[in-house]
Amino acid sequence: MKKIIWLKLRIVMGLIFLWAFVDKTFGLGFSTTAEKAWVNGGSPTYGFLTNATRGPFEEFFKGLAGIVAVDWLFMIGLLFVGVTLIINRFVVWGAIAGMAMLLLMYLAVFPPENNPILDDHIVYILVLALIATKSRG
């Protein structure tokens, strides 16, 4: 039973990252519209970095908006984390990359809106840490 739960948790976390990659790439209309899709010339990071950032790191993150290399690193990261977790290969590396991405997203919106310290990014970081410690590679 425990193995099934760990398997499902790893795959679900992978699907979260993979879905973000697919939606931002093709603009399927969930969080990214078709006209803002990466394949249509949109920036997968611009909206978040210019509109959602706040707090002590706001200017730093806003300065990253519109940089093509940032878009590429973000999208490669989403794909890498998603695929590694789903196919159960290089899981530790995928989890580390995912934790780094989530930490950056957390800092971009720090402090969180609904709690002075915690938000979903922290929960996902802890889940990825558990997955990494449970993984064999």
Structure description:
This protein is mainly α and 137 residues long. It has one domain. The chain is built from six helices and no strands. The protein starts with a helix and ends with a helix. The model has no long low-confidence stretch (mean pLDDT 96).
String of helices and strands: HHHHHH
Overall geometry: globular
How much of the sequence is in beta strands?
Answer: under 5%
* Amino- and carboxy-terminal Cα gap: 21 Å
Keywords: Membrane, Transmembrane, Transmembrane helix
Organism: Candidatus Zambryskibacteria bacterium CG22_combo_CG10-13_8_21_14_all_42_17
Transmembrane segments: 63-83, 90-110
Protein name: DoxX family protein
Quickly describe the structure.
It comes from Candidatus Zambryskibacteria bacterium CG22_combo_CG10-13_8_21_14_all_42_17. The chain crosses the membrane at residues 63-83, 90-110. The protein contains 6 helices and no strands.
List the helices and strands and how they pair.
Blueprint: H1 2-26, H2 46-52, H3 58-62, H4 68-87, H5 91-108, H6 120-134
